[in-house]
Structure formats: structure tokens, C-alpha cells
Amino acid sequence: MFAPAPPLSTPPDDVAAATAASAAANSARLESLLRAQVWRASSLGSSHSACVSSGFAALDGELPGGGWPTQSLSEILCDSVATLEWRLLAPALRLLLSIDAARRPSSTAKPAARRPSKPAALRAERPLLLINPPLTPHLPGLQRTGLPAHRLIWIAPETPAQQLWTLEQAIKANASAAILAWLPRATPAQIRRLQSCAQVMDAPIFLFRPLAMQAQSSAAPLRLCVSTGPGWTLQVQILKRRGPVHEGLLSLPSLPPDLAQMLTPRMLSLAQPQVQMPSAVEARHALARPATQSAAIHR
């Protein structure tokens, strides 16, 4: 009464190939999405925010995102007296200042508001903010490393509470190309609060603490130990990062160019001596003056 159903035919080879290619493409797309959303502890994590190159290829290769992160704290532990910090960060700070200079609006651009304000050429120049450095910043030396004096703001709060408040307000203002803060007495709870505030800032925040704080817990997503090495190198150990545990040390060349012209090969092969603690009375450079606490509050 009814005719038998025709037998199922085998799909042509081109249809089968197209189906297999589509399935492979979907599988690759799904795997790519999973890699972007799921982080495996055995692999180096990616950064959810923009990163700034450290200027050292070896260090960038070990940092999530390939550089110093923004919107988070980078904690650096060392027992030097404001010397290793500059050698480690000078390349990245120069890059940050050059990026701001490239974004500077032209003199022919019309102002966005009618109310008179700072010149357009100066509004784009965000400063480097120094909070509570243990030594007076030596402006001639910083200028030789490519950091112009007019881009540095030095604030010297007197008490730990004032230092913490100043850093928190600077982070919330989000008006600096980078923040360098020395807080030797910060507690884990205070660092956790600073890390929460740091998520609104689109620039790196560097927190310097003594090496003795290595065993203390910290909410900073990135923690490093820095010490001197032979031949004017920096020995960097990554204590904490988003990724597998980093074993060993990174040896980073950090010899200032001016000094390289004066040292002999034998002198370069010798280990750099440890920096001595300064005396109680310190002679300040005539060009260096810290911003007063009242000025920092009303800024």
C-alpha cells in the first residue's frame, strides 16, 4: 500500500569535509575562549589590565601580561636605601613619561571648557608621585636617567598614618603617571585596602617595603625581592605572581650609561658593595624640596 522509503544516501565528500572543518573551527574557538576566561595554575596568567614593559626582556617574560601591571599594587622588597628601586624602575618610568608626552594635545586644539585652566600642553603631563622616600631624591641623577625634574612630585608625610592616607588619596585621584611609595610599616590589612583602591587607577603603583616583610602576607598580586649582584646587575626573585612559582633568580643588567664609561672591565666584574645607611643629618640638594603636608592635603 505504501512505497518503501528510499535508502539513506551517503553525504558527498565535500559536505563531510565542510562539516568536519566547521566542527574543528568551533572547537578551536571554544578552546580559545576557555583559555581567556579560565586560568590554570600551571601556566603563567594574563593580566586583566594594561601592562607597561619593565624595560628588561627577561623580567617581562616572567610577569603576567608582559610587564608592570596597572590597576593593582606591585610590591618590591629590598634592603637598599632608595637605590635599587630606581635602577629597576627607571626604564619603565621613562616609557611612561614618553607615552604621556606623545598624548600631549597640540597647541592649536580648542579647550574643552570655557573656564581658564592649566595650559593644554601641561595638562597631559602627569607627574611621577614619590611618597615618603627614605632619602632625598637626587634630581641631577634622576635627570641623567631620563626623568625630568618638573615631572616629579615629592611628598614627605610625617607619620605612618599620614603616609597611608596620602597614598590612598593619590590612588583615588588617578592623576599620576606612576606612584612610588615607601611604606615600611604598612600592615596586611592596610595593603589589602590599598589593593582594593588600586583597581580604579590606570597607572602602575609600586610599594616598597623592607626585605624582612617577605614572610608577611600581602594582598599585592605581584611581589618581588631585589638585591645587588655581580657586575652591577640586579638579582630579582619573583615571590608572588599569577602563575606557577618562579624558581631561581633573574639577573638584570642595570649599569647606568654614565658609569659604564668610567669603569674598567675588572671593576665591572666585581660585586657592587652594599649601600651604607645614611647618617642622621642628611644634606639635601638645593633643587629638591618635599611638598608640605598641608600642600599635599589641598592638592
Key structural traits:
299 residues; alpha/beta; Rossmann fold; 8-stranded mixed sheet; two-stranded antiparallel sheet; 33% helix; globular
Walkthrough of the structure:
This protein has a domain at 48-103 and 123-223 and 288-298: P-loop containing nucleotide triphosphate hydrolases (Rossmann fold), CATH 3.40.50.300. Helix content is 33%, strand content 16%. The protein has helices at residues 13-37, 57-60, 84-102, 120-123, 139-144, 160-173, 188-198, 257-260, 265-269, 293-298, and strands at 51-52, 68-69, 73-77, 128-131, 152-155, 178-182, 205-209, 222-229, 233-240, 250-253. An eight-stranded mixed beta sheet has the order 5-4-6-7-3-8-9-10, with helices on both faces. Strand 8 (222-229) and strand 9 (233-240) form a beta hairpin.
Q: What would you call the structural class?
A: alpha/beta
CATH topology of the domain at 48-103 and 123-223 and 288-298: Rossmann fold
Q: Work out the helicity level.
A: 25-40%
Q: Count of DSSP helices?
A: 10
| The top level CATH class name of the domain at 48-103 and 123-223 and 288-298 | Alpha Beta
In CATH, the architecture of the domain at 48-103 and 123-223 and 288-298 is 3-Layer(aba) Sandwich
What is the radius of gyration computed over CA atoms, rounded to a whole number of angstroms? 26 Å
- Going across the biggest sheet, name each strand in turn: 5-4-6-7-3-8-9-10
**How many strands, what sense, and barrel or not for the largest sheet?**
8 strands, mixed
SSE series: HEHEEHHEHEHEHEEEEHHH
Indicate the proportion of strand residues: 15-25%
Q: Could you tell me the number of beta strands? A: 10
Distance between the termini: 95 Å
Write down the overall geometry. Answer: globular
Task: Please name the fourth-level CATH homologous superfamily of the domain at 48-103 and 123-223 and 288-298.
Answer: P-loop containing nucleotide triphosphate hydrolases
Write down the overall mean pLDDT: 78
Low-confidence stretches: 106-123, 271-288, 295-299
